[in-house]
Amino acid sequence: xxxxxxxxxxxxxxxxxxxxxxxxxxxxxxxxxxxxxxxxxxxxxxxxxxxxxxxxxxxxxxxxxxxxxxxxxxxxxxxxxxxxxxxxxxxxxxxxxxxxxxxxxxxxxxxxxxxxxxxxxxxxxxxxxxxxxxxxxxxxxxxxxxxxxxxxxxxxxxxxxxxxxxxxxxxxxxxxxxxxxxxxxxxxxxxxxxxxxxxxxxxxxxxxxxxxxxxxxxxxxxxxxxxxxxxxxxxxxxxxxxxxxxxxxxxxxxxxxxxxxxxxxxxxxxxxxxxxxxxxxxxxxxxxxxxxxxxxxxxxxxxxxxxxxxxxxxxxxxxxx
Length: 321
Prior knowledge:
Layout: H1 2-7, E1 14-21, E2 24-25, E3 47-48, H2 50-58, E4 65-73, H3 88-106, E5 111-116, H4 125-132, E6 138-142, H5 163-174, E7 178-181, H6 188-195, E8 203-205, H7 213-217, H8 220-231, E9 236-240, H9 254-267, E10 272-274, H10 280-283, H11 288-298, H12 304-318
Parallel strand pairs: 1-4, 4-5, 5-6, 6-7, 7-8, 8-9, 9-10
Antiparallel strand pairs: 2-3
């Protein structure tokens, strides 16, 4: 409750606490754990570090918003696609990213927390968590599970159908950490079944649940009914981000803007959060002078308290900041 009160700013100067962004190094011989074959050099620069990220946000940020920090999200769960999650070498890449990103962002004057990755199905998962717990600001794990359509590392069995993966989620919950959930709408119902085994866990759904435009137009009941099932869990949150995955010009697409507003209604503003998803959204032609005014327009009918939740308060609550 104190966190929420501190985040509510009734003046024109409102905090933006970004709950989903990446930093990476895809230079040759990088020690950051990243993979240039699946990631990219933003603006031709192989290093997208803390300084580059903060400049990306600041360049066109509307005067109503003040960037105060955020939550780093891992990117290695799309990297090294030839390696299985149980491969010790892959786990080392996960740990390398955590160390590199923590070093990048801990030197900033802004406030950052961290969501790293490790394969839940790995026998070493619990030990890796113990290592991460020694890093200030560590809050949880993300492992991308999108299946059909597959994301780069998900061409094999559906992780949500693996007993070892479900066991790993239980380990994560038992240690008090959160899980960032990136999946497809067709997987919502299966994850709701798994969630029922750890109902008190904080789960943050990434990127609106990754709907395609056809998910919203041809199978809307699968999408919205699935979200309603997940929203029944009181510690389930959702990020309003990567909307350009659904439609490149999402801000002028009534299907997408209406879906975002309906998602806010389903979860409530106290469990929804806007996020930059930089640098991917930056690469997809959504610089800050375009992205943040579009976010503000989506919620222009809401009061200042609600906006403060969507731009920072909900994220700080979810990630215990």
